[in-house]
Amino acid sequence: MVSFMNPSWPARLLLICGALFLLAACGTPREQLLKNRVLRVGVCPDYPPIVFSSNGLVAGVEADLAAYVAASLPATVKFVEMPFDDLIPRLTKGDIDVIMSGMSDADIRKSDVRFVTPYMSIGQMALVRAADAARYGVASNLYQARIKAGCLAGTTGEQFVKLHMATADCVPFKQPGEAVASLAAGSIDVVIDDAPFVLQTVKDHAELAALPWLLTDEHLAWAVPKTKEYDYLYVELDRIVLRGKQRGDIRRILNAYFEVNVRVK
């Protein structure tokens, strides 16, 4: 039984009321989105042309898709920049609402997040020095060579090197630019990364070449938390992707960045 004569009771009551007020003010992600109309989008802008920084602003495919999502919800996009390895931990902590950063819906990530319908099919490709391209006339040469293979730490590129290039030394990098610079300098022999990044890098570096086949079959998709509070956002984003594909809106966004047809072998 609570005694109202206890002098500490008013203070406790104020604390309880304050806590209830804060909970009501915070609300669920759905309530916050409907009220504030702000979508917190996690990005690692080092992956041209998918997502990159341009004059201090987030640009690329994901930036255009985020604008498309914002117009559909409607909402205002707030980009939150961070290293790629921090995206999923920050999402599960609730610091961001969605990851839109060229992330593939790999099985190794599905225990932590849930992916909406993919917006693009891609695969891993091999980036080499143009002078060495003849060494890898067929894909099997890549798997059997005793080489140093660079990749981004924590990505499906790293997973591919470790699982399928048994004779190669896996050399992980934190930034894709570091891997490209190391390849150009001759410190490593190949970089395994997503096809869009590899093809863009070849356009920017005449001394490098992309081996003309996809090494994997992957899909880029947006990730949201698995908690029930984000069911609303998951359904909305999934609806937007499906409708965008049916109308051709997403294809038009992608076509603005990609002109290369990749041969699958």
CATH superfamily of the largest domain: Periplasmic binding protein-like II
Q: What structural class do helix, strand and pairing data support?
A: alpha/beta
Please bin the fraction of helical residues. Answer: 25-40%
Number of strands: 15
Q: How are strands sequenced across the largest beta sheet?
A: 11-10-12-9-13
Average pLDDT over all residues: 87
Q: What CATH architecture label of the largest domain applies?
A: 3-Layer(aba) Sandwich
Shape: elongated
Per DSSP, the total helix count is 10
What name is given to the CATH topology of the largest domain?
D-Maltodextrin-Binding Protein, domain 2
Distance between the amino and carboxyl termini = 76 Å
Give the C-level CATH assignment of the largest domain: Alpha Beta
Key features?
single chain, 265 residues, alpha/beta, D-Maltodextrin-Binding Protein, domain 2, 2 domains, five-stranded mixed sheet, three-stranded parallel sheet, 39% helix, 22% strand, elongated, disordered N terminus
Fold and architecture overview:
With 265 residues, this protein is an alpha/beta fold. 39% of the residues lie in helices and 22% in strands. The protein has helices spanning 9-26, 29-36, 61-72, 87-93, 139-144, 156-164, 176-185, 195-204, 231-247, 249-255; strands at residues 38-43, 46-47, 51-54, 57-59, 76-81, 98-99, 114-115, 120-122, 124-129, 148-152, 169-173, 190-194, 208-210, 218-220, 223-224. Strands 11-10-12-9-13 form a 5-stranded mixed sheet, sandwiched between helices. A hairpin with a 2-residue loop joins β3 and β4 (57-59). It is elongated. Residues 1-9, 11-25 and 260-265 have low confidence and may be disordered.
